[in-house]
Amino acid sequence: MTKVVFACKSNSCRSQMAEGWAREWIRKRREDVNNQIDKDPSGTFYGVEGESKSGIIGLDDFPDDTNRRRANLNKVTVVSAALDSLSVFDQTNINNDFSKNRMQRKCVKQKAVAALAGDGIDISHFFPKTVDEIFTLLYDYSVDNKNAPDFFDSNEEEKKRRLSRVNELPSSFEVNNPSHNIQKNDDIKSKVIDKLIILCSCGDEMKKILVSHSKNVEEWEIDAPTAAANAGEGEEAYFRVSHEIRDKVNFLMENLVGR
C-alpha cells in the first residue's frame, strides 16, 4: 500500500486542494484502466459481465501492463492533515476538561471548495483532520482493514465505523501538547507514510513528527491563497493556486504510481 499525505497549517485549503486533485488523478486513471478492460485489443466491446463472442474474460486475459496499472491504483491511498492540531477545531467552545462535545470541527474553506468545483471536482464532503486522526485512518487501513477500500470510496456504513474511531481522539488531546498522543503511540506508526508533501512553512513541531514517520518528504512552495487574495489578487488567487497544486500533484502521482 502506498500512502500519500498532504499537510498544511490548518488542513482547510492547500492540502485539501492537493488531496482533491490526487483523488481526481486516481479516479481518471482507474477510469482509463477500466475502459481498457472493457475492450479487447481489437476494439471488441465487453459488457458488464465481460462477455463477448469468444466467451467470458478475466484479468488474466489482459496485458501485464494493464494488470500492473490496475494493481498500483488499488494500492494507493491519499489523505491530508493539519500541522496545527488546534486549528482544526473551534477553540472558543473548549471547556476546562477539553470535552469532545464542546469542540466544533471547522470546515474546508468554501473558496477552496469553489475553486475545485470550477474544474468539476467535489471536495465539499472533505473535512480538516489532525495528524493523530490521519495516523488512525492510515493504521486502520494498513493493519485492521488491509482489503478495505480507500476511506472516501468506502460505503456509508464503513465511513461511519472508521470515523467513530477518529472522533474519539480529540477528547484526549492535551491542548498544551497536541503531539502527546502521537509520541505516546510512536511504536505503531514508524514510517507509516510513504510520501509526505508539506505545503506551508509553519507547524515545526508537528512537521518533525510527520517527517519522522515518512519514508520520503517534499516541501512545495505554494502561496497561501487567502493571503494572496487579501493582497489584491482577489478570488482568482484560489483558482491560480489550485492549478499550481494540480500540476505538481499530477507530476507527483505519475512518478509515484505510474501511468
CATH class: Alpha Beta
Helix segment tally: 9
CATH fold name: Rossmann fold
List SSEs in N-to-C order. Answer: EHEEHEEEHHHHEHEHH
Output the structural class: alpha/beta
| Straight-line distance between termini | 17 Å
- Helix % is 40-55%
If you compute it from the alpha carbons, what radius of gyration comes out, rounded to the nearest whole angstrom?
20 Å
Mean pLDDT: 75
Summarize the biggest pleated sheet: 4 strands, parallel
Strand order of the largest sheet: 4-1-7-8
CATH superfamily: Response regulator
Total domain modules? 1
Q: Please give the number of β-strands.
A: 8
How does this structure look, described?
Mean pLDDT is 75; it is low at 42-62, 97-101, 144-149 and 165-185. Helix 7 links the parallel strand 7 and strand 8. Helix 1 (14-37) packs antiparallel against helix 2 (64-74), helix 1 (14-37) packs across helix 9 (236-256) and helix 8 runs antiparallel to helix 9. The longest helix has 24 residues, at 14-37. The protein contains nine helices and eight strands. The chain has helices spanning 14-37, 64-74, 110-117, 131-144, 156-166, 180-184, 204-212, 225-233, 236-256, and strands at 2-8, 51-52, 55-56, 76-82, 89-90, 104-105, 195-198, 217-219. The chain is 43% helix and 11% strand. It is globular and about 50 Å long. A four-stranded parallel beta sheet has the order 4-1-7-8, with helices on both faces. It has one domain: Response regulator (Rossmann fold, 3-Layer(aba) Sandwich), CATH 3.40.50.2300. By secondary structure, it is of the alpha/beta class.
